[in-house]
Design goal:
With 114 residues, the chain is mostly helical. It has 5 helices and no strands.
Length: 114
């Protein structure tokens, strides 16, 4: 790997998709309590859990599964960029959900999110 990535563009694309999945499940991006609850679910949902959500007959549950998968991609993008000294961040949605993920990760004792 060259140490160069398009982290800002990746963050923008991920944030757009995260926002759309939030709309799909009726998420209030301004409510930190709901965001923390969702972050907890995302962090504790196993691969089998995500697969079950992604295959669910209900579109809202599928949207939640997609959101959880996107949150993994978001965290991985931040980890990878940090390794090369780049601070990756998105807009309002990225910051709100990222904050909830990190707060829940700390509460769960997972360090810097799984």
């Amino acid at each position: 790997m060259s140490g160069f990535g398009h982290y800002a563009r990746t963050a923008e694309e991920l944030e757009r998709e995260i926002f759309k999945r939030g709309l799909m499940i009726g998420l209030d991006w301004q409510n930190p309590v709901i965001l923390r609850r969702l972050a907890y679910e995302a962090l504790t949902c196993t691969a089998d859990c995500r697969l079950g959500l992604l295959r669910h007959a209900d579109a809202t549950q599928r949207g939640k599964g997609e959101l959880f998968a996107l949150s993994e991609m978001m965290l991985e993008t931040m980890r990878q960029s940090a390794l090369v000294g780049v601070h990756t961040h998105g807009g309002v949605t990225w910051k709100a959900f990222g904050r909830a993920l990190y707060e829940e990760s700390e509460r769960l004792g997972q360090g810097s999110a799984k």
